[in-house]
Structure formats: C-alpha cells, structure tokens
Specification:
Radius of gyration: 47 Å
Low-confidence stretches: 1-36
Number of helices: 4
Helix content: under 10%
Largest sheet: 9 strands, antiparallel
Mean pLDDT: 90
Distance between the termini: 17 Å
Shape: rod-shaped
Structural class: mainly beta
C-alpha cells in the first residue's frame, strides 16, 4: 500500500557513445545508429554510348577509279565497330556490313567491291558517284577519322576526299559560306565540283563566281536528302571554260548546320596523268576583329626527287613547286611569303622573304614561285622547302594551294597548307607501304624556339606501335619515310622494331614537353606537318590528313557528393582525349555556388560548413578541345581550337546528429530532448525533426550545434528504438535511435527499503477492534522499461494499483488500502491523478500486515505466508507484483 510520492530524486546519467567511422557502426541495441562523418562520393559514372556520324567522302567509280574508305581508330583503349552507308547520287541508302577497327588500327572498305554485290533493292539506283556516312558508338566524340581515296592507277589519277565528324548541333538557318580555288597546271586541265546533301531535308546550294566587285554570277542547285550532284567547272564558270584563264574561285552558300552540304573539287588532265584536289574551306564572314594569320606548307619538293624516296622515278624527273592564291574578300589583300629551307643534313635553316603578293578584291592567281626561288639562290637546289604565307584578316579570307609537280605533269605531290599554331599533338589517318606504296611525313618547326615531340607509328592490325622522339631546332624540318623505318629495323625507345610484315597503319605526333601551368600539364608545340602516300610505279600521289588531338567530356571527380557538416573532400577535373584516355586537368579557378554550405580552395579541396545543397565549379582556361574531326587546313586558324571550359558537381551537405540527451522517453509522455551535432542553423525555421511513428517532435530552439526539442510519445507508439533524424535546408542527417520506454517492471531503489520489527498491533473489522502482531515495510519504487537489462524510466508517470484474491491466506488477511482508496475512483480502481516524480519513482509508504494469527497467548509468533498479486497500472503498462505477507516480514516477488 502506498499513498505518498518520494521526496528524493535519483538521477541516472547515460553516456552516448559516438562511433568515428565513415560507415554506421553499432553501439548498443538501444542506440545502434550513432555515427560521425559519413561521406558518399560518387565517381564520374560510366557514360553511355552515343552515336557519332562522319559525313561526306565524295566517292566515284567513273573511268577506272577505285574508291576506298580509309578508316583510323584513334582510341588506344578499345576497338570501334563502324557501320558504313553509301548513298547513291539519287540519295538511295546502301548500308554495308559493319567493320571492326582494332585498337589504334586501320581498316579499309572497297566501294567498288561493295557496289558489285549490291542487293536488288539498291542495284537500280547504282551510280558512278555519291556520298557516305560512317556511324560508330562511343561515349565521347572524335575517336574515328577517315578519308576517301579515289585512285585511277592506269591513268595515274589520284584524289583524296574528306570525311568529317562535325560536332552535333541543332538545326539552324544561318548562312554558311564555303570558299574554293581552282587553277590549271596547263590548258587541258578541267575540273569538277561535287555537292552532297548530308542531311534528311531538302537543301539549296548557291554557287557564286565573283570576278570583280559588283561582277558576279550565281547558280542554285537543289539537293534532295543525301543526294549528290557533280558539276563540270566549265558548266558554270566562264573563266573555267577559257583556256587562257589559269585560275579562279568558287563560293558555295547554303543555310543549315555546318556540314549540311559538303563540297569537293577535282582537277585533272587525264592525257598526262595530272590530278589535284581543289581546296574548299569555310569562310568566317562575321564582324570579328581582323587578326594576323600565318599558314604553313611543309615539305614542298624542289628539283630532283628526295633521295630518301623509294627508287623508281624516271632519271630526268624534276619537281617544280606551285602556289595558287585567292582573295575571297571585297578588299585588296596583301600576302607575305617567307621561304624556309636547309642546304645539307647538318646545315642551319635558312629563311628568305619572297615578294609580297597584292591580291585585288576576289582575285585568284598563280604565283610564279619558280622564278622567285631562283632569285633567292635556289636555281640548282634539290630537296624540300617550307613556305609561310601570312596576311591580316579572317579565316578563309585567303585560299591557297601548294605542292609540287614534275615536268611531265604526272607526279603531283600536294601539300595541304595549315594554320600555324599551337597544339598538344596531331593524328594522321592512314599510311601504307604495300604494293609499291610509300608514305612520308614532313615536319617543320616554324618558330624560333626548339620543339620536342613524340612520333608514334601504329600498326594497322592493332598489334603494336613504334615511337621515337623528334627534336626540331628553331626553323628546322625533317622528313620521316615509313618504308625506310621498316627496312632500317632500328629499335625504338622500348627496344622494339617495326615487323617487316606491317604494311599499313597510322601515326601521331604528340608533345613531349611538360608545362606545369597548362591545364593538362603538357607543353604546347608548334609544328607544321604534312603527309603523303604515293606510288611511283602507278604515278599516283595522295595527301595524308592531319587531325587535332583535343579533350571532351569535362567532368569533376567525384561527380556528386553527399557528406555531413565538417566533412572534407578533394575534387579533380578530368576529361577524355582523342585517344580515349582519361586525363586529369588543372583548373585555373574554383568556386562554390553557396559558400555557406561548402567552401573550396584554389586546388579543389572542399569543406562542408553548413547544411544544404550547392554546386562546386571548376574553370579551365585555354584548353585544347575536341570540336569534331576535320583534316586541318588553311581555313582552320588557329589549327587546333582552344576554349575555356568548366565542370561542376552537385554537393549535398547534411547536418550532423551526434547525440540525443536523453536518448529515451516513456510511452504516453512528453520528453524534453537535447539534440547535439552541427549544421542546425540558427532558428527552428528551416529545421524539421522526424522521430518515427507515434512520436511528435517539436523544435523549440536551435543554434548551429544544438536543438532543444520536445518528443511527445503517443500511447499507441511502438516500444523500442525509433529512428530520429534532422532535416535542415532540405538535407537530412543520418539517424540516431530514440528508445520508447514501456513501463514493464518495478525495482526497489537502493537505500530506501526498511521493515519494522514484529510487534503488537490493532485493527478494526466490522466494528470490532482486534489485537494482533505484524510488521510494516516501506521503500521507493523505480519504474523500469522493457529493455534487457531493464532501464529506469525517468519521467512523470500516472499510476494506481489494485489487489487480487489472497491465496493462500493462512494469516486471514481480509482487505487492502490502494492508491486511490478514499477517492472517487475507489479501492482497486483508477487512475486518480497520482503520479511518480520526474525520475519515475514513487514511495511505497507501507506494506503492512496485522493478524491475530501472529499473536498467541499475548506473544507475537511466526506464521504465513498469505500471498496476493498487487498490480500497478503505470502509464500504459500493468506490472504485477507478488506480495507475500508473514508475521515477521513482507516479501515482494520473493525478496
């Protein structure tokens, strides 16, 4: 029996253990989610494959031409499967079987053979010319390069047509301008121009022949999707049909994305075996400021054939350089020419200025280069020269053609001019030493500082590579003969030699220097490179295209980050180069969109300082970028494009929830809880607390490291662990456990238990006073929860008690006083507003027994026990206690 609340408070302190691990670590069954600083950094994900399309490649099978697609896989990390499609002149598509190009290897497709086995659906549409596409899949662009070689060996005719991979762009209707140049080696030379629509919609091309300011003619050509039309130069150009006119220009205009209409031109005199490609290139017609532009032509042959070349030239063969220029603007254009050559292997390079060429508006002319060279002392010179052509204006203001032709007009070595500028390296498409072929590369340093590169020859079957350093002194140049390298069997830097069975392949020329200030750490090089594939026996010569190495897919690694306030993380910038390799780049600067969430220093090191979400940004200045695969030319200035790039990563910083105090509370009660951690902000406005089912958590006050909250646990809440987390500015902390305590047992508070000695006592029953003997036991109860071992519930809890039937009852006990005796609730009923103290304790003031059975002959004796179940209704729980009454003592649950 008990009626009074305890006067003393018993305070139990719980220590919450914090696990300092990245992953969540178990501490106890009651609070198994304590943690410190988890960090979830997501690396840049594997990118899905994208479809890339190479377009163009005017092909022809008229006369004795055999057209071959030459394909180069630039990747050093994977093979590429390529799906070619031929389009007939009328646009009919003819898909060919896929071709797998090995790692760093090459492959060829014979169009003549493909046409010979065309299916019946295609056969009626077969034509002698058309265009093509090459399709491959890879996550990033720029990993496949190709050209179309059209060779008529019996007539010593050879052309190389471009196959480009433009960057994907949305349809636009802006005007595109392509400028071309034609010239006649002799009066019997004639020309053709092909126009190919590479798109799925109708296009209109306008051909303009501008002779003088205000004097121009034009012709419109309608092109259905994927169709090709071939026009004879003499059909639309008055100058072209005039035997006395030796040079002229063509402008092609259309509206649509870059490359929607591809233009190619050919010049030929079949009777002598003369052939040359007509240069075409885009013209920058914007209002951008004029700039100084220099173009380089490397390895122009002069005099007797180079002794490095394979034997077989007729003994009397002499090469004569040629130079044709065209001003594509309505203003006069001054073009300066500077000659570079070397007399002998060990001699210093020599430079000579040649006469400046003033071109009238729209004028095209052939420069009498032979006479200028003789005047510079090269009348009896045998070897190769280099030519720098300079002007002030815009890309495409000047179109030029350079190369060499022998005195018979049979051997034509074209040298494709290119913009002089910096790069991290270039890639060439195809070389061959099979069936009388040989391939040569001319490298010229047009600067006054040394240039160092690594030259690499890749084997066509992907089986290996051969690489060696090349040092070019200021203004120096060298020639690399592939057949001679193979025959020489000279080991490279790795001790390897080119197997004699290797007959075809490709090449690259990459910087060998390092520059700590460059985004990729690579020192930029300035080298003019030209390549040629020739066959002396057939009298055919074709140029070898050069392509820029650049980067794409600029990303931050990690690409996203989740961490807690106080975390640190290092970001790096990565990009994919043309070889498919992932390169780490150095950003010029870094920023955070919200420094109240995460800060970043100038090296990409970050720290989470507040809850929320932000972006970390990296900015790169002047990095070489992949802008599609195009054979470098005089209209590409600079030769390899640089641009400023950026990359970003999304960051989520969540608050830290390090401890709850207390970390438990009674069911049906409201507990004041202190939440400790970091990143909570300064007010409750942006804070929400989730404490599980049946618990309503209210933020009362907050600062950065602490929240004062009330946890109202409903009477229907589930007992045991409930997950508690804090959401601040939309970011949720990892969870801790809050233990919902259900009153399950009672324990006697140590030091509060006392029992009187057995003594005489009196009691009244039915109006009669009796004398007996008995004892009184008093103590303080602690309400405990369901945990094992039980833990005290430190909360104010309403309680009442009731008694069952006494059995056995040798002492003859007949009635009990309960918590609610004397109240409206009555004996054995409740509640009646009686509660524990704040520690969950209450005083059992007296468990008393007074029985006549315990007194005999006026003396107290022994006896008992009379046993009864006393049930305490505490909060939502009912706790049964077994009370055993003896004459000399009272036991609770046997103790």
């Amino acid at each position: 029996m008990r009626v009074n609340r305890a006067d003393a408070l018993l305070i139990l302190a719980f220590t919450v253990l914090i696990g300092f691990a990245v992953t969540l670590s178990s501490v106890s069954a009651r609070n198994s989610r304590n943690q410190s600083q988890p960090v979830a950094a997501i690396a840049a994900p594997a990118m899905p494959n994208e479809v890339h399309v190479l377009q163009g490649g005017f092909w022809r099978t008229d006369g004795g031409f055999i057209s071959t697609i030459r394909i180069k896989n630039v990747l050093v990390v994977a093979p590429i499967q390529v799906s070619p499609t031929l389009f007939m002149a009328d646009g009919t598509a003819y898909p060919l079987a896929p071709v797998t190009v090995p790692i760093s290897g090459v492959a060829t497709v014979d169009i003549n053979d493909a046409l010979a086995v065309a299916p019946k659906t295609v056969a009626p549409h077969i034509s002698q010319f058309g265009n093509l596409t090459l399709v491959y899949q890879y996550p990033t662009p720029g990993h496949l390069v190709a050209t179309l070689a059209a060779i008529d060996a019996p007539r010593s005719l050879s052309f190389v047509y471009m196959i480009n991979e433009p960057m994907p762009m949305a349809e636009d209707n802006t005007l595109k301008v392509v400028e071309g140049l034609w010239w006649k080696h002799d009066s019997a030379v004639h020309g053709i121009i092909s126009l190919s629509n590479t798109t799925e919609q109708q296009r209109t091309a306008t051909l303009r022949i501008t002779r003088e300011v205000g004097d121009s003619g034009e012709r419109q050509v309608e092109l259905a999707p994927h169709t090709t039309q071939v026009l004879a130069l003499e059909q639309f150009s008055r100058e072209g049909s005039d035997d006395d006119n030796r040079t002229g220009g063509i402008r092609v205009e259309y509206k649509g994305p870059n490359g929607a209409i591809m233009v190619a031109g050919s010049l030929a005199n079949e009777s002598e075996g003369y052939s040359a490609n007509m240069p075409f290139g885009p013209h920058d017609v914007t209002d951008s400021p004029a700039k100084s532009i220099s173009l380089g032509s490397a390895g122009i042959m002069l005099g007797k054939p180079d002794p490095m070349m394979m034997p077989g030239f007729p003994a009397e063969t002499r090469f004569i350089p040629y130079l044709a220029l065209r001003n594509t603007t309505a203003k006069p254009l001054d073009v300066t020419l500077r000659l570079n050559y070397t007399r002998g292997m060990d001699a210093a390079p020599i430079e000579r200025d040649l006469p400046t060429q003033r071109l009238r508006p729209f004028e095209a002319k052939i420069v009498e280069l032979q006479a200028a060279l003789h005047a510079s002392g090269l009348k009896s010179f045998d070897g190769a020269i280099n030519l720098r052509t300079s002007y002030t204006g815009h890309s495409g203001d000047l179109i030029l053609a350079t190369g060499s032709v022998d005195q018979t007009g049979t051997y034509v070595f074209e040298v494709r001019p290119q913009g002089i500028g910096e790069s991290i390296g270039t890639i060439t498409g195809y070389w061959s030493v099979a069936d009388g072929d040989d391939s040569m590369f001319s490298l010229w340093n047009p600067t006054d500082t040394p240039q160092d590169i690594i030259a690499t020859l890749y084997y066509g079957d992907g089986s290996g590579r051969y690489h060696f350093p090349v040092h070019l002194a200021p203004q120096a140049s060298i020639t690399i003969d592939v057949a001679m390298l193979i025959r020489g069997q000279q080991p490279d830097a790795d001790g390897k030699v080119i197997p004699s069975g290797v007959r075809e392949g490709s090449a690259s020329f990459d910087t060998a220097g390092r520059d700590g200030n460059a985004p990729d750490g690579k020192k930029l090089v300035t080298v003019v490179i030209s390549g040629g594939l020739y066959n002396v026996r057939n009298g055919t010569c074709g140029m070898n295209c050069t392509y820029c190495n650049g980067y794409s897919n600029f990303v931050l690694n990690p690409s996203s980050l989740f961490c807690l306030v106080g975390c640190t993380a290092q970001f790096i910038v990565q990009a994919t180069d043309s070889y498919g390799s992932t390169q780490t780049l150095q950003a010029g600067s870094w920023s955070s969109d919200n420094t109240a969430v995460m800060t970043v220093n100038n090296s990409g090191a970050t720290q989470g300082v507040g809850s929320g979400q932000t972006y970390i940004n990296a900015y790169l200045n002047g990095v070489m970028v992949q802008q599609g695969s195009f054979c470098v030319s005089d209209s590409m200035t600079p030769i390899c494009a640089t641009s400023n790039q950026s990359a970003f990563a999304q960051v989520s910083v969540a608050p830290v929830l390090s401890s709850l105090s207390p970390a438990q509370g009674a069911i049906g009660a409201t507990t004041a809880v202190t939440l400790n951690g970091n990143g909570f902000g300064s007010t409750c406005a942006n804070v929400s607390i989730s404490a599980g089912s049946g618990i309503t958590a209210t933020c009362n006050s907050a600062n950065k490291t602490q929240i004062q909250a009330s946890f109202a646990v409903s009477a229907s809440a589930s007992g045991g662990n409930q997950s508690v987390n804090v959401k601040v500015n939309g970011q949720t902390s990892p969870a801790l456990n809050f233990y919902v305590q259900i009153p399950t047992s009672l324990s006697i508070v140590s030091g509060t238990d006392s029992t009187t000695n057995e003594a005489a006592c009196t009691f009244i029953s039915n109006g009669t006073t009796y004398t007996g003997c008995g004892v009184t036991r008093s103590f303080t109860y602690q309400v405990n929860d369901q945990h094992s071992p039980p833990q005290p519930i430190q909360a104010v809890l309403q309680f009442w008690d009731s008694f069952g039937t006494v059995s056995p009852n040798p002492l003859g006990i007949g009635g009990f006083m309960t918590t609610c005796t004397g109240t409206s609730a009555g004996t054995n009923n409740g509640p009646c507003g009686v509660t524990t103290n704040s520690n969950g304790q209450f005083l059992e003031k007296s468990l008393s027994v007074c029985s006549t059975v315990c007194r005999s002959n006026g003396v107290c004796t022994t006896g008992g026990p009379s046993v009864v179940t006393q049930t305490y209704h505490v909060g939502t729980g009912a706790i049964a206690q077994s009370i055993s009454y003896y004459c000399s003592r009272v036991l609770v649950n046997g103790q």
